[in-house]
């Protein structure tokens, strides 16, 4: 593929990733609207938001296998059409059950995007640029999460949250068509033959490799707590614990996402330049854990402190973007789709488990106050949930300490 065509194709693929990030964090920006529309509790709202993560988690290994066999082009196009259907169904949902179905379809559709993008990076570029490219992809992709903050809140007030998701359905369709036209079919020999024995053998190789699992644990703890918090509970937490308005909370959320995006770009480039993974990953994971300590023990803070706290937290959260390189570089190069998918599965499993768990803990502490059909939570109702997310961050830090240093090179050696 010509360089200019390849670049254009990657721009479109990253645009699909922007949409996946938007869908991932959109419930946080419209949490109160969703609670009012479906008359739901915190636990049910957590389940609605986490449905995306359930299907995303289950799809990671199948996506990795498909990326290594049928290729990224087909799966990303199919995913775009499914995501469009899910977004439209969510927008038109008359009940919580239909909204759950729409959210599930959306998660299914966008679940293939990131792994397909990583596979394209592995096929088209030198391995020494992998972490930098992942950081760049996440930097641009995080525009979707930034859009899920203040812009979504403002747009939802103008058009209603349903109109926003009709627009995202149309955008998904357009991106799918562009991907089909711009990404050329894979050349013969670049992908493994779809053979069950070969696939199962490759998967077993990755699963048996002890060096794979620390990266999965780090992704589970850091990304999982990030998805659970920023994906739903950050806005209610800021409004209740720190006394912010909804608009002020959305500004914090947008700042968090922007700092995270910048961090992804910087941390990947720094790691590649130093040819080190652990020396960058461990300090950043430690800062992330420390930020959770502040959230847990500091109590109500003024905006002059919550803004820099969320900015620092966003920068430190980006540490998990190195975990895909850590997993890829200790496994066979031909299995990069499966190894990165397994690592990605850790973070989304964390989000799937922690998002409703946090909601259940908040509900358990709730004192029964309801205003206009919406449950009202006091600051102390969030304590157990924040402690749970801080514990997950501690697991992420432990995983970061256990990863193998690869010096930005593939270290795989067949034990046989």
From TrEMBL:
GO cellular component: plasma membrane
Pfam families given in the database record: MFS_1
Keyword Transmembrane helix part of the UniProt annotation: yes
Localization terms from the record: Cell membrane
Keyword Transmembrane: yes
InterPro entries to which the protein is assigned, alphabetical: MFS, MFS_dom, MFS_Efflux_Transporters, MFS_trans_sf
Membrane topology annotation: Multi-pass membrane protein
Positions of the Major facilitator superfamily (MFS) profile domain: 9-408
Keyword terms, alphabetized: Cell membrane, Membrane, Transmembrane, Transmembrane helix
GO molecular function: transmembrane transporter activity
Listed transmembrane segments: 34-55, 75-93, 105-125, 132-152, 164-183, 213-233, 253-270, 279-299, 305-327, 339-362, 382-403
Database matches in SUPFAM superfamilies: MFS general substrate transporter (SSF103473)
Protein name in the entry: Predicted arabinose efflux permease, MFS family
């Amino acid at each position: 593929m010509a360089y200019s065509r390849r670049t254009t194709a990657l721009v479109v693929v990253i645009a699909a990733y922007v949409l996946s990030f938007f869908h991932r964090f959109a419930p946080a920006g419209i949490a109160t609207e969703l609670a009012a529309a479906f008359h739901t509790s915190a636990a049910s709202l957590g389940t609605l938001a986490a449905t995306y993560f359930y299907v995303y988690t289950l799809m990671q290994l199948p996506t990795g296998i498909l990326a290594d066999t049928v290729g990224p082009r087909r799966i990303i196009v199919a995913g775009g059409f499914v995501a469009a259907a899910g977004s439209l169904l969510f927008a038109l949902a008359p009940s919580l059950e239909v909204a759950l179905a729409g959210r599930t379809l959306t998660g299914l559709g966008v679940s293939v995007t990131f792994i397909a993008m990583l596979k394209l990076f592995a096929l088209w570029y030198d391995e020494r640029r992998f972490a930098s490219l992942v950081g760049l992809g996440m930097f641009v992709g995080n525009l979707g999460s930034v859009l899920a903050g203040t812009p979504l809140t403002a747009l939802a007030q103008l058009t209603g949250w349903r109109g926003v998701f009709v627009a995202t359905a149309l955008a998904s369709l357009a991106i799918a068509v562009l991907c089909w036209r711009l990404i050329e079919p894979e050349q013969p020999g670049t992908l493994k033959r779809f053979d069950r024995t070969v696939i199962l053998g490759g998967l077993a190789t990755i699963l048996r490799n002890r060096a794979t699992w620390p990266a999965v644990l780090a992704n589970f703890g850091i990304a999982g707590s990030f998805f659970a918090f920023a994906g739903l509970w950050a806005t209610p937490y800021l409004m209740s614990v720190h006394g912010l308005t909804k608009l002020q909370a959305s500004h914090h959320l947008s700042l968090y996402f922007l700092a995270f995006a910048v961090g992804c770009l910087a941390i990947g480039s720094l790691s590649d330049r130093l040819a080190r993974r652990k020396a960058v990953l461990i300090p950043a994971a430690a800062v992330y854990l420390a930020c959770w300590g502040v959230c847990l023990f500091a109590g109500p803070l003024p905006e002059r402190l919550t803004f820099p706290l969320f900015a620092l937290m966003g920068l430190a959260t980006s540490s998990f973007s190195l975990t895909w390189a850590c997993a890829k570089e200790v496994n066979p190069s031909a299995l990069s789709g499966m190894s990165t998918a397994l690592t990605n599965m850790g973070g989304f499993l964390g989000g799937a488990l922690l998002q409703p768990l946090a909601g259940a803990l908040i509900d358990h502490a709730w004192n029964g106050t309801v205003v206009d059909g919406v449950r009202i939570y006091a600051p102390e109702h969030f304590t157990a949930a924040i402690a749970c997310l801080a514990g997950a961050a501690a697991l992420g830090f432990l995983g970061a300490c256990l990863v193998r240093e690869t010096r930005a090179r593939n270290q795989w050696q067949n034990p046989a």
